[in-house]
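Working notes for the structural subgroup meeting. M.R. asked for a predicted model of this chain before we commit to crystallization trials. I am recording the input and output together here so anyone reviewing the notebook later can reproduce the run.

Input as submitted:
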Amino acid sequence: MSNPRFVNLTPHPIVIVGGPTLAPSGSLARCVAESVPAGEHGGVALSRVTYGVVEGLPAPEEGVLYIVSGLVRAAVPTRADVVSPGDLARDSDGKVTGCKGLIVN
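Returned structure, recorded in token form:
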């Protein structure tokens, strides 16, 4: 793999325990969401959400892994270049401090 690199397509830094912290690239990959009313419960409105096509995901590029949310990764199961944060690391108070790696398709 020539020139291996990561492109963070989430809106927040990705901290990999024992590895790099990857700043957001400024571009976002998201699934289009559609929400429809699904009634109410105790005076609270309920809705049903369906997720559609992925927007903002660049074409594959040799040596590049695109970091996205788990939802986006799952929506493109044939893309081996799309990854999402793996198991979370937490401090003694339970606060997330990073991830222990990345999940691949």
